[in-house]
Amino acid sequence: MKTIRMDLNCFHTKVEILDQRTTFLEEKLDNAEYWGPDIWHLKQKVIDLEDRARRNNIRFYGIPEKMEVNNDVKNLLLTLIPRLLNISFEHPLELQRAHRIRSRTSTSTLESRPRSIIAYLLRHEQVRQILTAARKHGPHDLEGHKVFIAADFSTETNAK
Questions:
Q1: Angle subtended at Cα 26 by Cα 21 and Cα 31, rounded to the nearest 5 degrees
Q2: Which of 60, 135, 155, 159 is most enclosed, with most CB atoms within 10 A?
């Protein structure tokens, strides 16, 4: 009988040791100082890369749902951007893709708001031209709806 108790005590001690080691490692992982500046630097690089990947994206807020014909958001924006901003482009405006984002939820306040649109433009010069015109005029009126145009940045950059 004594041997069984000793084995159980030994097992209990090993579990306690493993629990202490696990707690220690979890605390180290949660401690940002443990990782040092390397992780911070890598995180900043990832944020920068994400922002660079999004540099040709533009977000449109407030464009009413069902304005596009046959769910063709791209053609809607091709006609809407020059009319809304009253600008002309040196080259024809070319969108690689455009789509609505943020799915609807059951909340009544969100149902009244149209989903935003994100568009990827082919030329960065046109992105700058659109954003400059959008900043000058502030919110734009489209059939009684306020439309906002903004650059598309990562969550971290938007928080700054």
A1: 125
A2: 60
